[in-house]
Amino acid sequence: MRPILLFALFAAATAARGEPNPIVIGASVSLSGTYAASGRYSIEGTQLWVDDVNKRGGLLGRPVRLVYYDDKSDANTGVQLYVKLITADKVDLIVGPYSSGVTSAVSTVAEKHHMVMLGPEAADVKIYTRGYKYNFQAQTQAGRYMLGALTLAKANGYKTLAMLAEDTAFPKAVSAEVAKMAGEYGLKVVFDETYPKGSSDFSALLTKVKQIGPDVVFANSYLPDSQGILRQCHELGVDAKMFAVAVGAAEPQFGNLGTTAEYVFGATQWAPTMPWPGNPEFIQAYQRKFNRAPDYHSASNYASMQVLEAAVKQVGSLDQDKLAAAIAKLKLDTVYGRFEVDSRGVQLGFTSALLQWQKGKQVIVWPDKMAQGKAILPTLPWSQRR
Amino acid sequence: MATALRIVAALAIAALILVPLFGSEYLISFAFTTFLFVGMAYGWNLISGYTAYVSFGQISFFGIGAYAMAILVAKLSWPWPFAALAGVAAAALLAAPLGWAMLRLRGPYFALGMLGFMQVLYMVASAWSGLTNGGEGIYLPPVRSLRPVYLASLLMVAAGLGVTSMIDRSAFGLRLRSIGEDEIAAEAMGVDTTRAKLAAFVLASIFPAMAGGLYAYRLSYVDPSSAFPASYEVQVILMAIFGGAGTVWGPLVGGVLLTGVAEVLWARFAEMHLFLFGLIIVIVLRYMPEGLVPLLRQRAARRSGPVLPKEATG
Amino acid sequence: MTPHIFLQLIVNGIMVGGVYGLMSLGINLVWGVMGVVNLAHGDFIVAAGFLTFWLFTRFQVNPLLAFPAGVAMGFAIGVLTQKFLLGRVPQDRGAVKTSLLMTFGVSYMLINAAQLLFGNEFQTVMFLPGSWRMLGLDFAKSRALAFLVAAAISLLLWAFLRFTFIGRAIRAVSQNPEGASVCGIDIDRTRVVSFGLGSALAAAAGALLVTIFAISPAMGTGYTVRSFAVTVIGGLGSFPGALLGALILGLSEVFTGYLASAQIANGIAFLLFLAVLLARPRGLFGRAVL
Fold first, then answer.
1. C107 pLDDT tier (thresholds 50, 70, 90)
2. Chains in contact with C, counting 3 or more C-beta pairs less than 8 Å apart as contact
C-alpha cells in the first residue's frame, strides 16, 4: 500500500510543478532529397531562434517548442505534413518549408486553415500573387537574385548570356525574370533551357552551350546542380567570361569543387558582414550551438521567426487573423535585412548581394557598400588553370 | 457465427459512413488515404494476385488519373467527379492496347516492362509542358470539404471488394486463377488466356486511375513526382501480398493494417520507416508468402477439424 | 552539328556507357544464372558509392583504394541476401514472384540504411577534376578513369567465367541446373557466389559513379531500371550484348540530350527498353528465352 501512496504523492508534486502550456511551432523541412543540404541550415536557423526566445522568457510568457518533420524535398509530403501539424498536432504557429516548389503547395494548406505562414525559402513571386491573405514572402524575390551578376556583366561590356535551370518553380522563375531584364543590362539571351529535377548529367546541354560560346553563363538552380554544372563545364572545356549560380555558391560545400569553384559568382541574400542589426550576435550564437557557420538559409529562417515574434508581441495573442493583419503592415529590421511586404505578400525589403570564390574563399563583390573585395573578371579559361 | 459477423460488418459500414460527419479532419484524411491504398491494392490484386502477372507499374494509371483530374479541373473547369471518371476512362482506354502488348511478356519481363512504362509516362509528363506544365506542375483550386472525396474513396473500396468478390466466384475468376497457376496448361485446356488476362488488366487499371484522380484533387497540386510516386507502388504491393494476393479480403485487411502500421512507423520512426517497410516485406515473404487471410483461414480450418465428405457419415 | 561536336558527343556517350556496362553485368549474372530479378541492384550501386564517398571525405582514402572496400561490401551483402533470404524461398511456381518481391523489400532496407549511415544529401567525390585533351577532344578525367576500370573489370569477369572452376560452375548452372547438379556442382553454393558477384559488380559501378556524378540514396531505383534496360537491350545471358547495350544507351542519352531535350534524354533508357521488350524481347544477342 505504501509504495502506491508515495508514488501518488510524487506524481501530484510533479504535476503541481508542471510547466505552463508551451507555444508549439510547426514546420516541415527538407532533411532528405535534393534540398537536404540547404534544408538543414534552414531548420537550424529556426531552432536557434527557439533557444533564443526561450532564454528571453518565451513568447507571451510561455515557453516555445518546435516540432518538425522531413518533407523529403517533396511537395506532396509537405502538404500532408502541414495538415498533420495543423489538424493533428494542433500547433499554434507554423513557418514555411524549403524551396518555392514545396512552399507553393503548402501555402494552400495554410490559407485553407487560416494560419499565417511566412515563406523563408520561397523566392518565386507567383506564389504570392494568388490573392492569399495568410501567406507572406520572407525571402528575396527570385528576380533579384541575379541583379549583381547582371550589373557586373553590363559593367564589363558582356553581350551574350546562356542559362540553365532545373524544371521547377524557383529556377524557372529566376530564368524568366532574368530574361525580362536582360535587355536593360545590354545582354542577349542566346540559350535558355531546363533539365528535369534530379538530373546529374548535364553534358549534352553544356555541349550545346559550348558550341554557342556565350560571354556569360548562369546556372539557375540548387546546390547539387550548381556543383554538377560547373564540374562538367570544366570537364567539357566550356569557357565563359563569367559563371554565376543562383543557389549554391553561398554554401561552404561549394568549395569541395576545389579549383573548379574559382572565379564562380553566386547570389547570396545574406552574408556575415552585412550590417543588419543583431547579425554578429546571431552568427556567434549559431556557431556555438551548431559548430559551424550559418548560411543565408539559417538567417532567413531566423529572420522569419523574428517577424513572427514581433507580430505576436504586437498583437498580444496567437489569433491568426490579427497576426496576418499585423504582418501585412510590419516593417522590421532583421538579421536578414529589412522585412516589408506589399499588399499581395510579396517581399519588398530583402535584397541580394553577389559573392565570388577567390582563392578558396567567398568574397562579397557587390553591392559596393557591402563589398569585401573586387570582382575578378574575366574568368580564366579552364585550360590555363592549375 | 455468421450472424455475429454480419452485425460486425454492418456496424463497420455504418461507422465508415459516419466518419466524415463526426470525425476530425485528420481522421477523415487518414481514412481517405487508407481507402486510396486499399482501392489500389484491389486493382493490383486483380492482375497480379489472380493471374500472377506481377506488375511494378500500376502507378502509371495513378498518374494518368491524377493528370486527367488536374488538367480537366484546372484548365477546363470540369466538375471533379466527371474529371475523375474521365481519368478512369482514359486509363482503361490506354490499358487495352498496353496490356495487349505487355501481357505477351512473361514474369520478370512483364514486371519490369510495366516499371519502364511508368518511367516513360513520367518523362512524358515532364517533357510535354504544354499539357502538363512540366516540372512546375498544375495547381488545382483548393478543396473546400474532404467529405465528398472521402465518400468517393469509400465507394471505390466497395467497388473493389464487390468486383473482386464477384470475379472470385465466377468462371472468369477461375480462368484467371488457372493462368496464375500454369498458363500453358490453361491454354492447353482451351482457356482464352489472352482475353482473360487483358480483361483483368483493364479492370485493374481502373482503381489506381480513380485513386490518382481523387488524390490529385485533394492535394490541389500535381507534378510528375507527385503523380508517379514510386513509393506508393511498394506500399500497394505490400498490402496486397500481406493481406493475401488472389483473395477477396486480402487487399482490405492488408491495406487497413498496413496503413495503420505505416502511420505509426512514420510518426515514431520517421528516419527508419522505409527500412522497416522493407523488413516487413521480407519477413512476410519468408514466413507467410501466401498472406494473412489464407493463413488465418488455415488456422480456422485446422481448429474446426477435418471436413468429412457427406458420404462418409452416410 | 559539326564533326567535332559529333565526335565529342560520341566520346561522352562511350565513357558513360562504360559505367552502365558495369552495372548491367551484375544483372546479367544474377538474372542469367538464377532467373532472379534483383530490384535492389541500383541500391547496391548507391550504397557502395556512399561508402566510397565516406571513406574519401572522412579518412581521405583515395577512391581507387576505397574501391575494393565497396566491392567487398557489395559481395558480402549479396551473399547474405542469397543465403538467408532468396535461397530459402521454396522453389515452386510462386518462386519468381516471391523472389522479385523480396528483393523489392531488400531494396528499401538498403536505401534507408544508406540514408541513416551516410546522410541524405547528394554527394560526390571530386577526385580528378578537368579533362585530358587528345585529338582535339575533351576526355573528362573522372569518366575516362571509370571507363578504364569498368573495361578492366569486364575483362576480368570474362576470364573468371571462362577459366576458373567456379566461373564455369556458374555458367553451367545458368544453362542447366539439373545437369550441373548431376555433374557434382553444389547448386546452392554456386548461387550464393553468383548473387554475391552480381552485387559486387553493382557496387563496383557505384564506387566509380560517385567519382563522376553526385548521387543520393533515392537514386537507386533509377539505376536499377537503367541496368535492366541495358541488359534487355543487349540481351539476357550475353556479356558482349550487355556491353553493347550499355554503349547504345550511353550514346542515346547523350545524343538525345543534345538534339532534343534533357527531359527526353532522361527517359530514353526506358523508351528503348520498352521498344526492345515489345519488338524483340531477347535483345540483340540474348538467348531466345521467351
1. confident
2. A, B
**Cα dihedral sign for B31, B34, B39, B40?**
positive
pLDDT tens across C175-192, in order? 888 888 888 888 888 889
Q: Please give the residue of chain C at the shortest CA–CA distance from A222.
A: C122
Do A113 and A148 fall within a single domain? no
Q: Is A151 domain-assigned?
A: yes
Query: Has residue B288 got a pLDDT over 90?
Result: no
Q: Which of residues 53-82 of C touch A (CB under 8 A)?
A: none
Strands A117-119 and A93-95, by their bridges, are parallel
For A237, half-sphere exposure in the C-beta direction (CA atoms, 13 angstrom radius) is 16
Nearest-by-Cβ selection for B116 from C88, C266, C270: C270
Low-confidence residues of chain A: pLDDT under 70: 1-20, 32-35, 76, 386
Q: Is there a single domain that holds both residue A164 and residue A259?
A: yes
Q: Cα(B167)–Cα(B200) distance, rounded to whole angstroms?
A: 10
| Dist. CA C210–CA B153, nearest whole Å | 44
Closest CB to B109 among C225, C229, C277: C277
Position A14 scores a pLDDT of: 44
Domains identified in chain A, total number: 2
Give the pLDDT band of residue C39 (cuts 50, 70, 90): confident
Q: CB distance from A227 to chain C under 8 Å?
A: yes
pLDDT score, position B153: 92
Residue contact C219–A194, C-beta within 8 A: no
CB-CB neighbors (< 8 A) of B286 in chain C? 85, 88-89, 102
CA distance B217 to B33: 13
CATH code: domain of residue A180: 3.40.50.2300
Q: Does A77 touch chain C (CB under 8 A)?
A: no
Q: In the CATH scheme, what is the code of domain C3-127+134-279? A: 1.10.3470
Same-domain status, A40 and A60 = yes
Q: Which residues of B touch C112 (CB under 8 A)?
A: 271-275, 278
Q: How far is CA A218 from CA A160, A163, A204, in A?
A: 11, 5, 16
Q: Note down the domain range covering A293.
A: 23-140+275-339
